Amino acid sequence: MSRKVQVTFLAAAWCLSYPDAELVSRVPLVRAALGEFPGATGPFAVVLSLLENTSLMELQGQYVQEFDLGKRHALHLSYWTDGDTRRRGEVLGAFKKVYRGSDILVDTRGELPDYLPMVLEYAATVDLASGRELLQRYRPSLELIKFGLRRDNLPHESIVQAVCDALPGASPADEQAVMRMAGYGPPTESVGLDPYDPRLLPMKGN
């Protein structure tokens, strides 16, 4: 079971990352690894097909449009729990502390340490137990990312759902259920970044 979870997390880390030539070259490897487990390829099928059959320039343009230019599908886990509040700096420090606790130096490659593909790769290749614990701690963030992707009919939704399915407990039925489950409300202190989409109010504090 742990092998399947590791493969799922690493495949998700790659498929949710910014597409480049190296990622496209990895598609056969991802297919082969997922193919070891019946049904595991399904949630990744559409994104893998897009990576194989779409020009790199178009892939990159689509990714920037959907994941970088706005916050509707923000892949930074603490954005959904702490928004753009000052407390988020402490939370990001906690992610770094987890990484420093491993025996392997984690290269953040200029990304914030709560970047979902990075957390997934850490869980898959460095420390599955502490990586899964981080993902479970930010399960509400994962669920809200998933619902945002679903609302905009993006195929990455099923990949995030596969990650959720590898964690304890069933997924909430809707965003309101996520809020109730976590007992969160919107942050009250902003540091001046873009306003939140009112349909996707971030949640406060873990």
UniProtKB/TrEMBL annotation:
One Pfam family per UniProt: Nitrate_red_del
SUPFAM superfamilies: TorD-like (SSF89155)
Residues in the signal sequence: none
Classification via InterPro entries: DMSO/NO3_reduct_chaperone, NO3_reductase_chaperone_NarJ, TorD-like_sf
The UniProt record lists the keyword Cell division: no
Entry keywords, A to Z: Nitrate assimilation
Domain of life from the UniProt record: Bacteria
NCBIfam families: narJ
Protein's UniProt name: Nitrate reductase molybdenum cofactor assembly chaperone
Organism, scientific name: Arthrobacter silviterrae
Biological classification of the source: Bacteria, Bacillati, Actinomycetota, Actinomycetes, Micrococcales
